[in-house]
Amino acid sequence: MPMVNFIFGIHNHQPLGNFGWVFESAYDRSYRPFMETLEEYPNMKAAVHISGPLLEWLAENKPEHIELIRSLVKKGQLEIVVAGFYEPVLAAIPKDDRIEQITLLKDFAKKLGYDARGVWLTERVWQPELVKSLREAGIEYVIVDDYHFMSAGLSKEELYWPYYTEDGGEVIAVFPIDEKLRYLIPFRPVEKTVEYLHSIDNGDESRVAVFHDDGEKFGVWPGTYEWVYEKGWLREFFDRISSDERINLTLYSEYLARFKPRGLVYLPIASYFEMSEWSLPAKQAKLFVEFVEKLKGQGQFEKYRVFVRGGIWKNFFFKYPESNYMHKRMLMVSKLVRDNPEARRFILRAQCNDAYWHGVFGGVYLPHLRRAVWENIIRANGFASTGSFVRDIDFDGRDEVFIEDENFYAVFKPAYGGALFELSSKKKAVNYNDVLARRWEHYHEVPEAATPEEEDGDGVASIHEVGRKIPDEIRRELAYDDRMRAILQDHFLDPETALEEYRLNRHIELGDFVTGAYDYSLFEGGVTLERDGTVSGRPARVEKSFRLAEDGFIVDYTVGSEVKALFGVELNLAVHSVMEQPEEFEAEKFEVNDPYGIGKVGIELDKKAKVWKYPIKTLSQSEAGWDFVQQGVSYTLLFPVDGELRFRLRFREL
Predict the structure, then answer these.
(1) Are the CB atoms for 529 and 544 separated by under 8 Å?
(2) Among 87, 123, 167, 441, which one carries the catalytic annotation?
(3) Three-state SS for 622?
(4) Which residue of 4, 25, 164, 633 shows the fewest CB atoms closer than 10 Å?
């Protein structure tokens, strides 16, 4: 009887820095019931990748689950597939780090009783030069999407086999994940998956269909726990798949032991289809969705989809400059601590991918994930002092001024308002300016994502298929920034400007200082920044002399303006655990207390100022719906200026 080979795989991951209750909930709703159900079906087998952050949590909190995995490996029901231990996008980290990350997870797999030879490619982000790194790490096969192969010009009919790919004389086998199966499993009735597998059986015994996708789809994603477990989808699936005489359930290693890959293919830089939408700048992402929907409406999408390509994963560093800066600081520190084993563990943690990008999950918009990355960058940096220097850290074509003392790292962008874009505390391991700007995202207007599958009404909806309306109470508070956010940003405002228009970015800047270029000169432990600009077309000047102190910094301002205005110094602080409200008050000093974030700090002035405070809230999509997240709090210290103004500002850790 003809048979089709079927490889079933899952990928279980929780980001570094995620809340303990999220790990616990995902374990109860997905990881535990999935493996316990698998154990009940001895003829069912699966490939599984479990990320390092999750494995560390399981080992510490659920050792019985580690034993269950070890038992299933021993019985031959599980094949362990690895990746970088801390789930980095391999294409975004140095070659030596890739090998170190993979080796760490291979070593853990050996403790589970498995000598892993395959890689789950994080977010399926492929670039050809990965071949050499993977082979050097002892990897024989890698799993990507069929979209990668289509982007190389292969037709769908050619994607039921693995292929070889080569770079610089090194060769590796590449398995394509079947996109159709990604949208069927587990969201549609089991019968539809069985029918599809039967339909691709043409008598060629080497044909293989691969499903490998997020384990969180089996219980964590909205609506799936009831569907997968309470309504019995998973039991029916395991029973039908493991007993169907026309389906040969196999594993990657078993398949490669029987069959050779079909031939040679060269894959372009790619990820899965949805990523090509998410990674585009917002305006282009909106056009991309419109284009896909237009092709679907004309009934031409399937015919031409092989030519429909959007952005690549690294576009996120262009889309989110805050992510780019964090990434380039990570690369800088990775190079600094290359030969320090203790520091290496911190920098490898800082490579966890989730906080660097954003798709259907919160990602870069989740402050606790960014905070975990920054904590590890700062701790790793502590093993290698650089002192102060000037160079282009984030490769934006403009030099940064990097100042280091025993307690802090301070990084200025003279070309961008002469502002402080990083103030990292070695003692607290926090970056006080870990604040994301408010951005328009294309899905703020586009109700549905560009998915390659049509809904058919059966089963449960995938989060890729859910259209959402922004609640009116959120829409009223929505505001978008036309600049990045930093500490010591200099504003000239009309004296009649109100907090409400300022916080919603509906005010008018009279000056050209917020994003204008400042001249600078360094001195021991500090920097002086100055700009001759204009306010309402008349000459104006700002000079700020900054120096690090034992518990923070001191900055002396000298401001000159021929125009009567309000001069404001804005400090954007990474206050994440205390939800603030807009407020106006007068003070010479005040405290900021963020107990589960940056901790307590004090702001002191040598003269009374009016203070505007408001939360910086962004709207992002997530698996649960809309997230209206406080990215930080803006504190603007306001002084009337009509001629010359001098004052001192002090920032202190408390």
Answers:
(1) yes
(2) 123
(3) strand
(4) 25
Residue whose pair of structure tokens reads 């030099």 in the numeric block: 399
CA torsion through residues 26, 274, 448, 438, sign? positive
- Number of other residues whose CB lies within 10 A of the CB of residue 223: 14
| Global confidence as pTM | 0.95
214 carries an active-site annotation? yes
Cβ 200 vs Cβ 229: under 8 Å: no
Q: Which of 39, 56, 170, 214 is catalytic?
A: 214
d(CA 106, CA 190): 33
| Encoded tokens for 316 | 């996120």
Q: Quick one: how far is CA 351 from the chain centroid?
A: 10
Tell me how far the alpha carbon of residue 545 is from its chain's centroid.
36
Model confidence pLDDT, tens digit, residues 102-144: 999 999 999 999 999 999 999 999 999 999 999 999 999 999 9
Encoded tokens for 20:
């303990």
**DSSP designation for 436:** P
User: Contacts by 542-547 with C-beta closer than 8 Å and gap 24+?
Assistant: 542/418, 542/490, 542/513, 542/518, 544/418, 544/488, 544/490, 546/410, 546/412, 546/420, 546/488, 547/523
Q: Cα(7)–Cα(219) distance, rounded to whole angstroms?
A: 21
Q: Is 586 a catalytic residue?
A: no
Query: How many angstroms separate the CA atoms of 520 and 622, rounded?
Result: 42
